[in-house]
Each structure stands twice: as C-alpha cells, then as structure tokens.
Amino acid sequence: MKKREQNGGVALKQAVLGQKATVFALLIVALGFSEAQTDPNDASVMQKLAISINAGKTLGWTSDTDPCSWKQVYCSQSRIESIQIGHQSLQGTLPDDLNKLSSLVRLELMSNQLSGPLPTLKGLSSLSILIIERNNFSSIPGDFFSGLIALTAVSLDNNPFSPWRIPESLKELISLVNFSANTVNLYGEIPDIFSALPSLNTLALAYNNLYGNLPQSFSGSPVRFLWLNNQNQNQQVSKLNGSISVIQNMTGLVQVWLHSNHFSGPLPDFSGLTSLEELRLRDNEFTGLVPKSLTNLKSLQNISLTNNHFQGPLPQFLPSIVSVDMVAQTNSFCLDVPGDCDPRVNSLLSIAEPLGYPDNFATNWKGNDPCNQWNYVTCSSQGNITILNFQGLNLTGTISPDFSRFESLQRLLLGRNNLHGTIPPELTKLSKLIVLNVSDNSLSGKIPDFGQNVNLIKDGNPDLGKDGNHGGGGSEPAAPSPENGKPSPKTIGEVSKSSNVVTIVGVVIGVLVGVFVVGGLGFFCYRRRQHKFRRVRSPRALEPHSIVVHPTHSGSGSEFQKVTILGSSPGTMELSPGSMAHAHHGFVQMVDDRVPTIGIQTLRKITKNFDKENELGRGGFGTVYKGELEDGTMMAVKRMAGGVIGDTGLTEYEAEIASLSKLRHRNLVTLMYYCWEGSERALVYEYMAQGALSDHLFKWKEREWKPMDWERRVRVALDVARGVEYLHSLAREKFIHRDLKSSNVLLAEDMTAKVGDFGLVRLAPQGGVSIQVTKMAGTFGYLAPEYTSEVFFSLSDVLH
C-alpha cells in the first residue's frame, strides 16, 4: 500500500510538473509569436531600410520574414528598439523616414560603406546610442539632433560630410555623455552651449576646420576627455586660437589634446586639475613661462610642448612623468638645459607678463643675453639696458612697475599701443631716465612726479591726469610766443614742460606788454595791425639737426600752427594763423600742423649719408632708405632726388603730406616727419620691416623666403580692407587712394599690412559718389575701367 501511495505521489508530481512545463512552453511560444509581430509602421520602415542597404544578401533580411526576427535587430513589445549592423560591409543609403522608428533606442551602423545624405533623426526621443562612424555619408541635416533628449553617446567620426557647423540644438541633449565628431568637416566657432550639458564626459572634435576661441561655457564643464587637435590641416586658413585660460576651471579633465592649432598667450594655472594625466600642446603659439603648477602636477603622465614660443628657464617635470615631448630649440627658453636665466632676461619677462607675453617678444627674444640682437632692446657697451622701444607694437595690458629694475634705462618708449591702467609710480626711481613716451594709449589716473629731467610724452591719453595732478613731466612741446616770435627748436624726442612753460610765457608776455605800452602808441598800433600774424625762425637759423615743431593742442591756442620757412638768408617770415603757405618755386612752402619737419642733416646722419647699404628700394618718387634714431626707432626715409623735381612730383609730395597728416589708422602707414629744405624733399615713415606685399607674392623665390600661406594672405587682405574702409567712410575727411596695388601694401614686423603711397590720393566729394579727373594717374594694369571716362569712384580702389 505504501508503495502504491509513493508511486501515486510521484505520478501526481510528474503530472503537475508536466502541466507546468506545458504552460511555460505555451508562454514561450506566445511570447515568441508576439515578438515576431512587428508594428506595421516599424515594419514598413525596416523593409525600406533592407532594400536601400541591400541587407537581404548580406544579413538575410527578406520581405517574407518579420523584421523583429531579423539578424542584429531587437524588438520590445513589437517595436523596433535596436539596430546593430556595424562591420557588415553594407552599401547604399538610409531611407528618409528612419525617424518614424519612434521606439528606437540604439542605432549602430559603424564601419560600413553607407553613403548619401543622412536622414534627420528629429523627434527620436528614446534614442540613446548613435554610432555611425567610418562610413561615406555626404551630409548631415541641420535638425538632425533636434528632440533627441535621451541621447547619451554619439559617434560620427570619419565621414566626408559637406561643411557643417555644430548645431545649437545640441544643447537639447541634456543626457549627453560622449560626443565624438572627429574628421567630419565641421567648421566655424565652437558654440557656447556647454553649460547646458551637465553630464558631458567626452568631447572629441579633432581634425576639422574649427576656428576662434574656446567657449566660456567650458568653464566648470564636467568634460574629462577633450580632443580639439589638428584643425584646418589642409587649407591652413584658420585654426582654434586665443587663450586656453578657461580650462583651469575644467577640474575633471583627464586627457587634453590641443596640439596643432594657433592657441597663444601664457598657460593657465593647473593646480586645480588634479586628475590630469595627458596634456598635448605642441605645435601652437604659446608664450610665457611654463608654470610650476604644471611641472609639479602629480597626476601628469604625458606632456608635449614642442614647437611653441615658451620662454624663461627650461621646465623640469617630476620623475614620475612617463613621456615628455619637448624637442630642444623649438621654443624660446633662455637655456637648452635646466638652470636660471640671466637677471636681465627675468626682468624683461616680468614686464612682458602684464602684457600677456606678446608673441613678437617671444619669437624675437631668444637666448640668455638680451643685448645680443634682441628686438626692441638697446644696451650700453657694459651690457646695461638703456633703451626699451616698444612703440607701435599693438601691445595690450598694463605697464609693469618692474620697469624700475632697469637702473640704467634712459628711454622707455611705449607710445602707439593699447595700454590701459596707470603709470606706475615706481618708474620715478629710474634715475637715468630722460624720455618716457606713453602717448596714444588708454592710460588713466594720476601722473607720477618725474621731476624736470624726464621728458614725459603723454598726449593721446584723454583720461590721464584728470585728477588735476600732472606730475613734473611735460607731454607737449611749447608753442612759440606770438610776442617774441622765437620758438625753441626741439630735437627728436624732446618736449617742453607744459606747466612751467605756461608760467614763464605768462611772465614774459606781461613784461613785453609793459614794454610795448612804454614804447609808444606807434609800436602798439603796429602790433595791432600784425596781431593776426606770427613769426617763425628760418630753418637756416636753427641747428643743423633741429626739428621745428609748433603743434596745435589744447592750451596752445588755435592761432599756433607749424610752418617751415625756406630761403637763402636767415630771418623770419610772417604767416596768417591757420593758413597753409604754398609756392612750388618760391620762398615759403606748404606745411601741415600735424606732422613735424626734420632737417636734411638729421636724415643724412640716421641713414649714414644715404648709404647704398641702407637702401630699401627705388620708385617713381625716388629712393627709400632705412634709418635709425639714437633711441632705436627705425624709420623709412623716402628721398626725392634734388634737381629732377617736376610739378607732378611736387604735387604728389604735397598730397602725401596733406592726406597722411589727417589720417591715423593701424592699417595705414604713418608719416612721422617730412623734410623740405632747399632742393631736398623727403618723407619719413614708420619702418615696415617685412617690406612690400608684392615681394612676398612674386619675389619670394629669388629672396629665398617661404611662400605666404593662405591664412596669412587672408589676414593681409582683411588688414587692407580695414585700411581702405577707413579711407572711404570712417575718416573725418574721406579719401580715394587711386593707386592701390600689392607694391603699395607694406608689412610690419608682425606682418600687419598697411596701405602706403598716398601721392595720388584725392579727397572724396562730400555726399558724392564719384570724382571727376582730367588726367589719368596710377599704374596700368591696376586702373579701373571707368577711369578712362574721367570718373573715379571709391569702389574703383580695387587691389589686384
């Protein structure tokens, strides 16, 4: 009995188990059946996809089978959820309605040969993974990422898209973790959208055509892996540039690739980047010192600094670093081995710091001896720095108090820059200083008292000294007294002490007035008749190296204007105030009140008597020579040969003085002085170290130069366009150049382009669009067609 009960129990258990197995099997069948029944809309899209990529042959996707049963396709509740068909050698295009797969979570198409335009994925709010790298897709639509709020990972790498920008809609991807778009023909600036991406871990945009600065929204971003290297490798037009200071606030960074761009300026503080392991900075334009916060970073494993303009001592990294790419002599370190720089080098770097370590300093200051051919620096025979000439270098920043370290400094020339802030009072400690030029900047605040031994040139800073304290130096030359008719001649760099001059002139005028009263009514009447005139000394009565300067400035009165009297006998000549004397072959010649004159003997001295070794070029006007003043200022002297001057040459000479005296722009050549003495005529310009643009375009082979790359050409074109725009529409008086060509575009030491040669310039008519010309002038091959009809427009100024 017991045995039967046992057998019956076993049978019951088996029956129960059998029933359960049957139910489980039925459930599996039912589930399988339900999975095989793809949503009709999804099925339609999948059938189109199978046909367009020829998946029937490669993957076995056939029209008589349900898409949910296809290889590498995964469904959930009859909806297509995942398509993973990477590495299948697929060819073809994608259907336009791919975004109708509204439940799609994962789309993987990498490493195939798919082509054609990508269809929009707009509205796929469930899509999380998108990998389409290494295909041949030709374009990507502007709304491709719109509404993809669940997207966490994107890889678009290595697709030959037509040029496209990073879309603003990317900021909608609030769940984005990884975004990789290397070698996809991106161009333009990186948009400032990253504060809207709180989960972003990887941003890879290498090998594209991006340019501009790093966006400020990088600050505080959680990005750990940042690849922005190798922009514009083929065209060489523009790259990512500017400062990388924003990355000091990206404290989660582990790997940073910024190499092969145009980033510049000093490196930021790295002390907060405690997870940073790899930093690639080679092939950029960084300047300044390699900071201790980087060399002492314990997490750092790999770093590259080759081919930059880093300065100061050779950095020494911690022994734990695995790889250091820092090829010798590819930067501007003072030494090729670890060690301290010369104290003079350290001082120069100290004053460069608040200027942002300018690139023109870093590229020209090499080695450990600043007296060995360092640009802008002049030394005594004892090796002491006596002149620092930083004029016209487009410097920005503030004046460092560390200039006071140069105890032998005699001349500090900082004019024509973009400096702001105050003049440091520490500069008054320079006991040997005789000239301080800070003119034409944006300085403000109190002027330190430099005493009577320092000529302080400070005009062109409207906010400087507004508190009423003008210190002990003077910024402007003294105007001649209309009572005594004897202006004090000034040599180059000299100016009067304005506060003392006002007092002295007041006393002298008072005394002279008393003398005039005592002298009698006749003399008084004579003075009244002549009060609208003034006297100036003939240059022949001055020292041979003198410059006559009678400027118009606030406080000197509108009646004072600079003139030059030319004649065979010494004496004075009376001229109406504000007038411009003019006679081609007479005694008095045309002058202008905004450009000082310079004597021919001075020009002979600075050009070594117009030595052929200083010759820069020849033209229709005459010969151009290089000259150097005692303070180190370089000038270009264009000399018209005496005895061969015709009316046309004189007209061009006068036109150039008259026009350039009214024009001040960073892309127009500056006329510094002019000479009109006897038969000598000369114009003195700022020195343009890189010569004419035409030489770089057409003569680079014979001069053994490197050809000008496209990026430089674009920058030159923009410089010229800005200069011409100023001539045509922005200057107080509008001008038409009439001879714009590559040989009349000159390049400064930093390759800034400036328009020159204003001998044919014409004043544009007020409110008019054209000027009538009675005689053709200019260069054949560059003349506009309408010129033949005796009409010239602003638009006729076309650079060929």
Automatic annotation (TrEMBL):
Region: Disordered; residue ranges are: 458-494
Keywords noted in UniProt: ATP-binding, Glycoprotein, Kinase, Leucine-rich repeat, Membrane, Nucleotide-binding, Receptor, Repeat, Serine/threonine-protein kinase, Signal, Transferase, Transmembrane, Transmembrane helix
Localization recorded for this chain is: Membrane
Where is the sequence biased in composition, kind Basic and acidic residues? 460-469
Q: Name one GO biological process term.
A: signal transduction
One GO cellular component term of this record is:
membrane
> SMART domains recorded for this chain?
LRR_TYP, S_TKc
Where do the annotations place ATP binding? 638
Q: What coarse category fits the chief subcellular location reported for this protein?
A: membrane
Could you tell me which Gene3D superfamilies the record lists for this protein? Phosphorylase Kinase, domain 1 (3.30.200.20), Ribonuclease Inhibitor (3.80.10.10), Transferase(Phosphotransferase) domain 1 (1.10.510.10)
Domain of life of the source:
Eukaryota
EC number(s) reported in the record:
2.7.11.1
Q: What class of enzyme is it?
A: transferase
Q: Which GO terms describe its molecular function?
A: ATP binding; transmembrane receptor protein serine/threonine kinase activity
Q: Which SUPFAM superfamilies does the entry mention?
A: L domain-like, Protein kinase-like (PK-like)
Specify whether Transferase is a keyword of the entry. yes
**Matching InterPro entries, A to Z?**
Auxin_Ser/Thr_Kinase, Kinase-like_dom_sf, Leu-rich_rpt, Leu-rich_rpt_typical-subtyp, LRR_dom_sf, LRR_N_plant-typ, Prot_kinase_dom, Protein_kinase_ATP_BS
Signal sequence residues:
1-36
**Where is the Protein kinase domain positioned along the sequence?**
610-800
Q: Which reaction does it catalyse?
A: L-seryl-[protein] + ATP = O-phospho-L-seryl-[protein] + ADP + H(+); L-threonyl-[protein] + ATP = O-phospho-L-threonyl-[protein] + ADP + H(+)
Task: Extract the Pfam families matched here.
Answer: LRR_1, LRR_8, LRRNT_2, Pkinase
Q: Show the stretches that span the lipid bilayer.
A: 501-526
| Family under the similarity heading | Belongs to the protein kinase superfamily. Ser/Thr protein kinase family.
State the name under which the record lists this protein: non-specific serine/threonine protein kinase
Query: Which species does this protein come from?
Result: Amborella trichopoda
